[in-house]
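job 3f2a | input accepted
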Amino acid sequence: MASIDPAVASVLDTHPPNDHSDEDELLDILDDDPALDTFREQRLQQLHEEFNKAKHLRNQEHGSYTEINDEKTLMDIVSTGAELCLVHFFKSDFHRCGIMNQHVEALAPLHFETRFLRINVENAPFLVTKLKVQVLPCVIAFKKGVSVDRIIGFEGLGYTEDTFSTHDLERRLLQSGSLVRPKVNGSSEAASLQRYHTGSAGCGQATKDDDDDWD
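job 3f2a | predicted structure (215 res):
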């Protein structure tokens, strides 16, 4: 993907485009930057282009975390529907899947360049076998339909829910190019924790001694 001016990125990341966004408001924010003068027109044009790209991607369900119930639909999206795609293979009664779900859900609205999906392993017998999904949670990142990263359990992130943060997950996915640039801050972490503890994360929260082996 083409590089983006840091000033433009800062405006987009602190004011993520959504259905209620006003492009003129974002342009005004950028225009107030005293460092803008040298490259003013170029930056304003890039913000306009990035805003339109974000709106286009959101119309294709980017910026949300979507559960897919049919594995053929999932394969179509991964192979042809999105350049960057993250898939969480989960089981609703696994506590650790609920923890992973919380962090993936927090990343989705920030990283609109990547499509965030999840599928219950019980609805994906072919993919579970083909991709050798044996331990849950399992998060697989795809770029142009090709797997570029796989997170098994909390491997490489942390060993308990207390040490595993959304920032840890973002940093890991940035290393593989599954995300475009760092965007997680303290407020987004707090919001994700609030959603999770109020039960809106959408994945079952079973007892903590659940086994994460699934075959």
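job 3f2a | The first strand starts at residue 65 and ends at 67.
job 3f2a | closed
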